[in-house]
Write a structure and sequence with these properties.
Layout lengths: L1 H6 L13 H11 L7 E5 L5 H8 L3 E6 L2 H10 L5 E5 L13 E7 L8 H11 E12 L20 H10 L2 E10 L2 E3 L6 E8 L10 H28 L9 H155 L1 H34 L1
Parallel strand pairs: 1-2, 1-4, 2-3, 4-5
Antiparallel strand pairs: 5-8, 6-7, 6-8
Helix pairs in contact: 2-3, 7-8, 8-9
Length: 437
Amino acid sequence: MEKLLRTGERQVGVTRDNIRDDHLARYEWAATFVSPEMRVMDAGCGIGYGAVLLADAGASVLAVDRDAEAISLARANWPHDSVSYQVGNLNFVHNPGEDRFDLIVAFEVVEHLVSPELFLRQIQTLAKPNATVLLSVPNESCIAHSIELNPFHIRHFVKSELEDLALGCGLLVERVYHQDNKEIREDSDGRTLVAVCRIKPSYRPGCRDSSDLERAYEKAEQELHKRSEAIRQLQALSAPPGANSTPRNLGIWQFAVRERAAQITAEQNRQTLNKISHQLQTSEHELLKLQKSHRETLSSFNRANVTLQAYGDILREKDNQIGLLENAQRTAVAEQKVKSEQLKQLRTARARESEQLKQLRSARARETEQLKQLRTAQARQKKFFDPARPTLAGLFRLMKRHRLFVGIILQAPLNTAKNLISVSRRKRANRSGMLSK
């Protein structure tokens, strides 16, 4: 804690009574943007009092700071079930959750960054499309930037500079407030600028147009020029420290050395920014190529999918036709079996009829033979009876006269003759019936 106390830049109180009123007021004002179950990131959280205020409003908070000592103090003095503390570089924040943030708070952060564009572009990958971003910076109109007064600040901002910076990084500034102590208002200049921003709809994370990059480079050049001019003035006032140097000259020289180191660091950061911007542009170009290739592949896939669907419809129609043909074939086979069975039965019946016909023909042949025999017998009888017919007539007349005597004598021969005649008649009747059939 002593290290933080020596800087004078951090709030290190363990209770709210030990925190400056203007710092508490900003976070209490930010808590009005919180709704239950909202995910919030507190960037540059310090010792964590602001993250606790946001969590008390119902948010789940990820609090990030690059100073490991500050995070240790936050975990020890400002614990909360809904706050997760993380040590990390704000330009490369790791989001442990699956969802992006609904609200990102970055109070008293931007003025400490050599390249605030990197941080503000990083916000695009962390925030939801309609997320709110709250920023605060010292107002250059009220507190002119001075390395002697505050060596931890890289620069201060006026309202238009803050709006340009945010817009160039994909943030739409909806409103800029001014703060003095606890009061946050719109109508007049205050020591601190507090901006309410939202993600620009047309902005693509990691990509900036050339005009934005040129403005950023111009500002970096102007900052380097200011620092170089300040160093030259300090060098004119004092010589390098020697044996007769006063403490004042020694302090000025040390300050100049620190400024030169800061200038070199800023130049290196600018070169790094140029390299990163070039890499981002190259990556964007490659991404556009990949997107174009993806669209073409997707279009080809869609066409192939349509073709496959058409082939699928054709195959389903063919399957239906095959099913109908198979049903028809099974029906035809069943009918064929029925017809075969009927034909077999007909053939069996025909065989039986043929056998019966054969038997009938045999019977007819036998009857014909019998008829022939009967005709022969009839002819013999006729040959026998015709000559005796007159005699028989006389006998019948005699028998009428002598009926009893003659009847007794001729009864047996007459019966025999009658039987023969009836048998002959029956055979003729049977033969006539068979011929008619």
